[in-house]
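Researcher: Structure for this, please.
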Amino acid sequence: MKDIRDYSLKGHNTFGIEAKCSRYLEYENDSEAQEVAEILRKEATPYIIIGGGSNLLLTRDFEGIVVRSGIKGHYFEQGSVPSDHRMVCGSGEAWDDMVATSISAGYYGMENLSLIPGDVGASAVQNIGAYGVEAKDLILCVWMVDIQTGKTHIWGNEDFEYGYRDSRFKHDWKNRFLITRVTYGLSREFHPHLDYGNIRAELERKGIAEPTAQQLRETIIEIRQAKLPDPKVEGNAGSFFMNPIVDRAQYEALAAKFEGMPHYEVDAGHVKIPAGWMIDQCGWKGKSLGRAGVHDKQALVLVNRGGATGAEIVALCERIRSDVKAKFGIEIKPEVNIV
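Model: Predicted structure, token format:
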């Protein structure tokens, strides 16, 4: 187990913000997770649990304990039919590595979530999603240690109260469990999801009518790389804001006022409006506020232009939220965890 005092978190957040924590703990197996849980119970100090730092904005040094999973490894479990197979992954594995591994092994379902940064454990907390697929569509169960008791549990999908970029882990279960493994339900039969965003158009451009899983993965990676900055070059946390879901009546009133307003169907009474489009309409795309800025190819992404503090990113966030509210009457909320 890693146990380090006065630890720099710059390498643990993709914004590249310089901040420290009083103590850093990283567990690499189940027994170490229980040991960490015991430390957290006994220490009268605040703590936070992080993943790969791709959904984290640090605004200050953290006077407490930061915990991360370092559990690696994966294995497959065979079901009785092609559509009933499972992949069990250590919570410290990089998510995209597991997507690549599943496809290489002939297990399908994760393709549309290619190149999403972060760790496996975070996929269960955040309910990550992209191109019409969400983690909740794949997660069967999560293995975890209860910090309050030190006991291990395996909870099923129905226990997590999943919603759009939301789960019970972000509410009444926040900072209560140390996730050790996640089990995903996959299939040996490939059934591609192509009707979201510009996936099909990009495949047609490449002359691919019926893509393989690997071709779909490569196409999604190309789409993402074309509009999202590399955090190693320009610090960012991917999509900073959630796409708001509004009543259909509200959308129709806005669509009558703003020609060409895009939307995605949610259900009979609700639609999802792209936050990035609204931010662009407010004139923020490519603009900066001090050392913080909005990416010039995707307005949903806030970036560190170089040396920005977490407070500067937050200030930009609030200016954008205010402008969107004033123009469209819609509150957009950060997807990123601000500490």
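Researcher: Any notable elements?
Model: The CA atoms of residues 21 and 62 lie 5 Å apart. Residues 310-328 form the longest helix (19 residues).
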